[in-house]
Amino acid sequence: MTVSQQSKSTTGELKKALAPRTGLQPSEQLVTYKGRERKNSEFLDRFGVKNKSKLVVSEDPASLERRYIERQRNARIQNANRAIGAIALEVDKLADQVTSIEKSVSGGSKVAEVQITTLIELLMRHAVKLESIPADADTSSQKNLQAKRVQKCVEALDVLKVSNARLQTVLVTTKWETFDNSPPVTTKWEIFD
């Protein structure tokens, strides 16, 4: 590609002019002339650039590495956010079950203890999953928020477990009692005037 530039321009100014054409920011470009990399502050005419001179513009390997590291970091953040989001959905479902148990126990209905214990175990599994998610500054607040939700649900279940144990079990049967000593049913009717 051909670029017109004043001979009194610096290499940095040349890089700025090349940025729209190359798609590389000036800090991502290396300009080489006669086998030597040129610094941004060097004037083109000072190192021998004349009309129709050929310069080599390439991508700085350090910028490639920085972009690679940034892509890796973004991918880690996205993966962490996805994992935290999936756990949040599961915790939502479990929190609904905790609310349902709270309503039952506060209404005087005894709940099977295994139901409370199972919910606690499921919540603790999610706490362990949350702990295993690597978090940096971008994801740590979301991770902490979900961990607090899990902890709050487990604490509520611990209190419900105690309240539930105090409730008496009510047994309802559908077997009807019959009385053998009852008077016989008659089908004769007497009429009184």
From TrEMBL:
Gene3D superfamilies recorded: BAG domain, Phosphatidylinositol 3-kinase Catalytic Subunit, Chain A, domain 1
Residue segments, region Disordered: 1-25
Gene Ontology molecular functions: adenyl-nucleotide exchange factor activity; protein-folding chaperone binding
UniProt keywords, alphabetically: Chaperone
Domain Ubiquitin-like: from-to ranges: 1-57
GO biological process: protein stabilization
Polar residues bias (residue ranges): 1-12
Segment forming the signal sequence: none
High-level lineage: Eukaryota, Viridiplantae, Streptophyta, Embryophyta, Tracheophyta
Cellular component terms (Gene Ontology): cytoplasm
Protein name according to UniProt: Ubiquitin-like domain-containing protein
PROSITE patterns: UBIQUITIN_2
